[in-house]
Amino acid sequence: MNNATVTINYESFQSIKDKADKYDKLIQENEQISAEQDKFVELLCKCLDNANEQEASENKQHFIAKAIRAICDHYDMDMNIEYGELDEGKAPSLLNE
């Protein structure tokens, strides 16, 4: 059956094509969501790593606040409603973000 020929009507072909197009679109959307999730997790890990490297508590707080902002942005949360006045801390003088 290497060179078999199949004949189907146009409606069946169109149905198969529409399903394949929907499948391709879902794959693309899932890849985009996965990439955004990976980027979000990387940002949180970087903020936490940077906070752990700091010695001064106000510098640690800067990176923790940055992580909280990232969480609020990612989940479409209003930071003022959720956390009120957030202590932004103080960025380290030689900031290597």
Describe the SSE topology.
Elements: H1 10-53, H2 57-74, H3 79-83
The proportion of residues forming helix, as a percent range, comes to 55-70%
Which class of secondary structure composition applies to the elements? Answer: mainly alpha
Shape: elongated
Number of helices: 3
What is the CA-atom radius of gyration, in angstroms? 24 Å
Q: Could you name the ranges where pLDDT drops below 50 across 5 or more consecutive residues?
A: none
The overall pLDDT average reads 90
What is the H-and-E element order?
Answer: HHH
Strand content: under 5%
The major β-sheet equals:
none
Oligomer: single chain
- Count of distinct strands: 0
Rounded to the nearest angstrom, the distance between the terminal CA atoms is 60 Å
